[in-house]
Known about the structure:
The structure holds 2 protein chains of 2 kinds. The longest helix of chain A has 12 residues. In chain A, the strands form 3 sheets. In chain A, strands 8-5-6-10-9 form a 5-stranded mixed β-sheet. Helices cover about 15% and strands about 35% of the residues of chain A. Chain A contains 2 helices and 10 strands, in the order E-E-E-H-E-E-E-E-H-E-E-E. Chain A folds into 2 domains: about 45 residues, N-terminal domain of TfIIb, CATH 2.20.25; about 60 residues, Roll (CPE0013-like fold), CATH 3.10.530. Chain B is an alpha/beta fold. In chain B, strands 1, 2, 5, 6, 7, 8 and 19 form a 7-stranded mixed β-sheet that branches.
Amino acid sequence: MTRQVKKIICIVCPRGCEITVELEDGKIKSIKGYSCPLGKQYAEKEVVNPERILMSIVECVGGDLPVVSVKTAKPIPLSRMIEASKALADIAVKAPVEIGDKIFENLLGLGVDVIATRPCHEQRG
Amino acid sequence: MLSPKSKPSYGVIVVPDRITKKDYDTVVIGGGPAGLAAALKAREKGLETLVVETRDRLGGIPLQCIHPGFGIHYFKEDMTGPEFVYRFIDKLLSTDIDYTVKSYVNMAEYVSPMEKKLEIITPYGTEIVRTKTIIYAAGARERTRYEIGITGPNPAGIMTAGEAQTLMDMYGVMPGKKILIVGSGDVGLIMARRFVLEGAEVVGVVEILPYPSGLIRNVQQCLKDYGIPLLLSHMVISVKQRNGRVSSAVVVKVDENFKPIQGTENEIECDTIVIAAGLKPRTKLLESLGAQIDPRTKGPVVNEYFETTIPGVFAAGNALIINDYVDYAVEQGELAALAATKYVDEKGIRIKKPVKIVLGRNMRLIVPQMLTLTSDALFYGRVARPEDNVWLSFKEIGFKIPQLKVLPSIMIRQKIRLDKLRMLETDTLTVEVIPRD
C-alpha cells in the first residue's frame, strides 16, 4: 500500500486555500483545507488530471480592435495548454463578434470549443 | 456642439455626445468597474449621473485582463475580465445614464458644498458641467522602473506589465521573445503566463521581498504550472543593451535590508524587461481640489462613506486603495454611490463624532482613515508582514476577529456595525493585529 500526501493551492477563487489530499494506492482517502464545494471538486480533479481554462487572443479582421479575446468553454488538460494556444495562433475571425460566439470548434480534438470573451465590433467610418 | 447621435452598441469608434445636461447630481470620473458600478447604483437611486472615461471605450482595465478568475464572488460564476465588465457596460447602456469616452476632466473646482464645477475635454470640445457630488474612480497607475531603482539607459524593450498587456491582449502585438519580469505582483504573474502561452520564453520573475507579492493562486497557476523560476530576495541592478534593445539584466541577491549581496551578481539574457512593481492610486485631480492624501495608501483620506476631505467628493476602486479583487472595486463604487445619494438628499454628510483610525501593531494601511459614527463601516487594510494565528483587533471597542493567516498580499476586509462603533468612548480607534495565544 502506498500512501501519498499532496498539497494543492486552490485556484477557483482569489482566496487561494491550501488543500491537503491524502491518497492511498492512487485513490483519494481524505481532502482537507477547502472552504467551499468548488474547492473540493477542484482538488479531486487536480490530483488526478490537472485542468485549466485556456485564455488567448485571435485575430479579428475588420474589427474595432485587431484581436478578440477568447477562452475554452471548459477546462482542458494543463499539459496541452501551449499546444492549444498555438492552434489558435493561425486562425482569424471576421467582425462583428459578440461575447459567447463560438470561435473554434473541438480544439485539438479535445471536444472543447473556444468562445469569444470580448466583443469586437465592425470598424466604422 | 453636435446633436446626440443614436445610441451605438458599445460606445466605440463613433463617440456619442452624451453630455446632455449642464447640471448633474453626480459625475463619475472613470469608466472602469468601480465607476460603472457607482454610476449604475447612483442612477438606480435616482441621481442624474454622468460618466467620464479617458479611453475610447467604457470598461477600464478588465478589458485587457482576458484570464478567468473574475466574478466568482459577485456573479457566482467564473468569468474573464471583459466578460465581467461587459455585464456592467451592457447594463449601463440600457439606462439613460450619460457618458462620454475619449474625455477627461481637466479641471475641478469646489464652488460650494452643493456645487462643484468641472471642465471636461471631449472630442467635441470643452464642456463645463456643474455637479453636487463627484465619485472619483480614475483607477491607478503602474509604478515605473525608476521608482524601483532601475536607472541607466533606456533601450527599447522596457515596459510596465500593464503596457505589455495592452499591447498583447488588446492590440495583438507581442512585446518580446525572451522576457524577464521584475516584481511578483498579480499583473506580473498573470503576464508571465500569457507570454508563455503566446510563445515567448519567460526567463524569470524577480522579487525583492522574501515572499511573492501576488496572490498565492497566481503563483501556482501562472508560474508553477509552467515551471517559470521565481527569484525571491533578488533585484535588478543594471540593464545592458545591444543595438538599442535590451540584451540582458544583471540580477543580484539582497539581504534582509534589501542591500545587494556582493558576489551574487548574475547576468540574465533577455530582450524585454517587464516591470510589475505594483500600482499607485491616481490622485492628481483630487489633490488639485485640496483633498488630503494618505501617505500609506497613496490614495485620499476618506470616512466610512468613502468621502474625501472635500465634502461631496467620494472615491472608489483603485483610486481609493489598491485592491486585490475587482469585486472590492465594485463594492466601493456602489457604496460611494449610496453615499453620494445620501449627500444629495440630506445636503451633506453629517458628523456625529469625528473619529480618527490609528494603525496599530502589524497594520500597514487602512481605509477609511476616519469615521463620522453615523453608519456601519467597511474597512479594507493590509498588514505589514506575514503572521499566523492572530486577532484582527479594533482595540477601543474590544472587537476581535480571529485570523488563521495574514499576508501583505491579501487585503483584509472587515465590516463593523454602527452599534459596535457607537461603543467607542475615545476619538481614536486603533486597528491592530495581535498574537492569539
